[in-house]
Specification:
The structure is a single chain. The chain is an alpha+beta fold and about 450 residues long. Helix content is about 55%, strand content about 15%. A hairpin with a 5-residue loop joins strand 4 and strand 5 (about 135-140). Helix 1 packs antiparallel against helix 3 (about 145-195). The chain is rod-shaped, with a radius of gyration of 52 Å. The structure holds adenosine-5'-triphosphate (ATP) and magnesium ion. Adenosine-5'-triphosphate binds near residues 358, 379, 407 and 413.
Length: about 450
Amino acid sequence: MKLKNKIHLGTSVLLIVIVVLINTSIYFTASYMLKEADLERNAADAARTASGISSPAESVASSDLLRAYTPSDGMIRVILPNGTVDGVSVSQNTAALREREARYGNGEKRLVVETKNSSYAYAAIPVIWRSGEIALLERMESLQATDRILHILRLILIFISIIAVIPAVFSARILGAIISNPVEEMTKTMQHIRTRGTYERIQTKEKRHDELQDMAVTFNGMMDLLEENYRKQEAFVQNASHELKTPLTVIESYANLLKRRGRERPELWEESVEAIHEEAIRMKELTQQLLALARRGEGWDIKHEQIAIDEFVRETADAFEKAHQRPVAVHVAAPFIIHTDRSKLRQLLYIFLDNARKYSEEAVEIKVNKKEIRVIDRGIGIPADDLQKVFDRFYRVDRARSRKTGGFGLGLALAKEIADALDIKIRLESEESSGTTAILTFSEFSFSPVTLKEKQEEQL
Ligand code: ATP
Ligand code: MG
C-alpha cells in the first residue's frame, strides 16, 4: 500500500474510532444519569404514597384509595404476602400493566423494567396494610419522556459524528498528500538520475521549513558533492592520461627515428636512448605518485613512533642537501618530541623541500618552533589567487615552466593526503617574487605525554 493511502486510512480509522468512542460515552452517561434521576423520583413518589395510604378507613375500597396516587403514565398496586393483588390503579394509556404478574417480596427495590413497547421506572416498598400484615406497594411510571430525550440525543450525536468524520477523512487525505508528494518527487528524481545518469536536483520551496525540505536540501547537497567528485575524477583521469601521453609521444618518436635511421646514423643512438630513458623515469615517477594518491587512507598503514623533531629535521635536511646539492639551513628554536609515522613525515617534508628547491635559487631554510615546522624559500612565490588551488591534483601555476622543472602538479595534493593521515595542518604563505613559506602544524594528539616522559627518562 502506498504511504499516502496508509496515512489516509490509518488517520481516518483512528479519527472515526475516537469520535464514535466519545459520542457513545456521552450517550451512555446521559442515559444513565437521566434514568437514575427517574428511578429516584419514582421511589420518592412511592414512599409518599406509602405514607399516604397507611391506616386507611375501612369503608374505602383499596383500589379507590390507590386511585388518588396513580401516576399519569403508569400503575400503582398493593400485593399481599400470599401473592394476591389487593387493589390496583392503572392510568388509561398503560392498561396493559394490569396483566403484569404479581410477585410478593420483602425489602425495597428500584429498577428499570422493560416491557414490549416501553420502559418503566419501578419501585417497591413494604407497607403495613389494613389487616396488619406487611404488603408490598408497587409503583411503575413510564420512562417515555426520557426515552424520547435519549432518542433525540442519539440522533444529534450520530449527526455530529458524521459532520466531524467527513472533514477529518478529507484532511487525512490532504495530510497523506503533503507528506508523500515530496517523497514521490524525490523518488522520481532519483529514478531519473539512475536511468539517465545525470545529476539532477530536487526543487526546493523557500517558504517551507520542515523535515522534508531539509531532506531535499540534504539530497541536493549530496548531489552537488557527487557531481563535484565525479568532475574531479574525470579531470584527474584526463590530466593523468594527458601527462602520460607526453612522455609516450617522445618515446614513440625516438623509437621511430631509431627504426628508420638508427642503422645509418649511429650517433642518433645516444641521444635517443638518453631521451627515452629520461621519459621512462618521468613516467615511472608519475605512476608512483598516482598510485600513492589512489591508495589514500586505507593503504597508508601508519606506524607511530616517537620522534625528536630536531634530530629528524637535521637528518632529512642533510639527505636532501646531498641528493640535490642545495644548501638547507636548519634553525631549531624550541625542539619537541612527537608521536607520528617517520617515513610519512619525511615524505611530507621532502615534497615541500622539493618545491622550495625547484621554485627558488637561493638556500632553503627550515625553522622548528613550538608545534610547527616551517620550510622557507626566497623564490618566485605563488600568486594569491592560486594559493588554495595548488593543492588540487595536476594544478600548476605556470604549466610551461613546470614542464621544465619536471613537476606534474601532484606533490601538494599528495602532501595534503599525507598531512590528513598524520593529523597535521598545512598552510602556505607566499608573496610573488619574494618567496614561499610552508607551515606544518602538529595536532595536540601528536604530543603524547607518555612519549615525552619516556624521552626524559631516556635522557637521564
Ligand atoms: P610535483 O610536485 O608533482 O613534481 P609540482 O611541484 O609542479 O609537481 P606541486 O608540488 O603540487 O606540483 O605544486 C603545485 C604548483 O604550486 C607548482 O606547479 C608551482 O606552480 C606552485 N608551487 C608550489 N610550491 C611552490 C613554491 N615553493 N614556490 C613557488 N611556487 C610553488
Ligand atoms: Mg612539487
